[in-house]
Specification:
The structure is a single chain. β12 and β13 form a beta hairpin. It is built from 13 helices and 13 strands. The strands form three sheets. Strands 2-10-9-8-5-3-4 form a seven-stranded mixed sheet, with helices on both faces. It is α/β, with parallel strands linked by helices. Bound molecules: pyridoxal-5'-phosphate (PLP). Pyridoxal-5'-phosphate (PLP) binds next to α3.
Length: about 400
């Protein structure tokens, strides 16, 4: 029989940038008998989830939950709002932006794909200038990946919103937050995002299998005119049934138990604290990388990701060979380079259910792996990360840490 927990001894370090480590609390929540998804108990839970999701997406708008991976939610965003032949504006920030573009093209949309170097986020000035010249308002949607999981580069969503406003353009604004939601600041409501796409398996700390569309009033209005064919993904029927706590088809009941628990955990910690924790771990990781003498892929510090750090492998060495050594010797999975970055970078995931000591273990594994794989580097990344973590006291926490000894 296939054994998936057959690791030598101790815990496997799952340091890919998603799916992330699922906390025991969530595993226990999922491990309950499946209930009748048309019964009253289910509706009570679902209504609590829909309310709770609004706090995570920072919105008053409905959040649709699909039993699907993130790719399904990408498709749902498009088929609900657009019509065949519509023009959309997208940006080549990396592998995931490229995949979203492919879906748009397969659906018959005309994509203006602004070229990028896979090391930078979307430039708000470019958004503004491209929209300003579109006087006829042919562009129906601007689509941006908030955190490019393939590169560890973020795009500044609030600044892009302002750029769209400055251009006075009515295009819908769609944002993929699959690897940023619940890890980095994201405000669907305040930033007037029309469709936010998200997934369960990263900051939400759940297994893969759920994905989300947060939907603005403007997007709902667009969906009444949109002519791309849709059935399974249709918002109207879904939002209608969700009001009573039900779904138009069988929901992923046990994953929803997990989602209910995840929302509780995030609210107990407090979203600002969750974001601060991720930012600290990202900073410690970057300091370690610099100490090793390795280059961070993201060029602009204002665009650093808090979810993951992508690191360029030393010239003449394979990042995949290095990752193989780390997996075999230290039982740690690191993220591979995707698309044109294959073999050239490795990615350290530091998002989701994660704390200082887990980060220390991760950094140790990377430093030991660099030595074991004979990659040229300087030692001392671990020391630098430890110094940062122990010195950067969590003064910015909004609530004091729980004391286990308190009565
Ligand atoms: C930013 C981003 N968008 C979209 C996807 C696709 O989601 P999925 O693989 O769950 O279909 C991913 C997956 O990692 C992602 O990181």
């Amino acid at each position: 029989m296939l054994r998936l927990d057959d690791h030598p001894s101790g815990r496997h370090f799952l340091q890919i940038p998603g799916p992330t480590n699922v906390p025991d609390r969530i595993l226990r929540a999922i491990d309950q008998p499946t209930i009748d998804h048309r019964g009253p108990e289910f509706a009570r839970m679902a209504l609590e989830i829909f309310e709770g999701l609004k706090s995570i997406f920072q919105t008053e708008s409905p959040v649709v939950v699909y039993p699907a991976s993130g790719t399904g939610a990408w498709e749902a965003a498009l088929v609900n709002t657009l019509s065949p032949g519509d023009r959309v504006l997208m940006f080549e920030t990396g592998h995931f932006a490229t995949l979203w573009r492919r879906i748009a093209e397969r659906l018959g949309l005309a994509v203006d794909f602004a070229p990028g170097d896979w090391r930078s986020g979307v430039d708000p000035k470019e958004v503004e200038s491209r929209l300003r010249v579109d006087r006829a308002h042919a562009i129906k949607a601007v689509m941006v990946v908030h955190n490019e999981t393939s590169t560890g580069v973020t795009s500044r969503i609030a600044a892009i919103r302002q750029a769209i406003d400055r251009a006075g353009h009515p295009a819908l604004f769609m944002v993929d937050t699959i690897s940023s939601l619940a890890s980095m600041e994201f405000r669907h409501g305040e930033w007037r995002v029309d469709v936010t796409v998200a997934g369960s398996q990263k900051g939400l700390m759940l297994p893969p299998g759920l994905s989300f569309n947060a939907v603005s009033e403007k997007a709902l209005a667009a969906s009444r005119q949109a002519r791309l064919p849709k059935s399974y993904w249709g918002w109207e029927e879904m939002i209608g049934m969700n009001r009573q706590g039900y779904f138009p088809y069988t929901p992923a009941t046990n994953l929803l138990y997990g989602l209910h628990e995840a929302i509780a955990m995030l609210n107990e910690e407090g979203l600002p604290n969750v974001f601060t924790r991720h930012a600290r771990h990202a900073e410690a990781t970057r300091r370690a990388a610099r100490a090793w003498g390795l280059e961070i892929l993201c060029r602009n510090p204002a665009e650093y990701s808090s979810s993951l750090t992508a690191i360029l492998m030393a010239e003449g060495h394979s990042a995949d060979a290095f990752r193989k050594v780390v997996l075999e010797r230290f039982d740690m999975s690191l993220g591979q380079g995707l698309g044109k970055l294959a073999g050239k970078i490795f990615r350290i995931g530091h998002l989701g259910h994660f704390n200082d000591l887990m980060l220390c273990g991760t950094i140790c594994g990377v430093e030991m792996g660099l030595a074991a794989a004979q990659v040229p580097h300087r030692r001392g990344g671990v020391d630098v990360a430890l110094a940062y973590l122990s010195g950067a006291e969590s003064a910015s926490r909004e609530t004091p840490p729980l004391s286990r000894t308190a009565a």
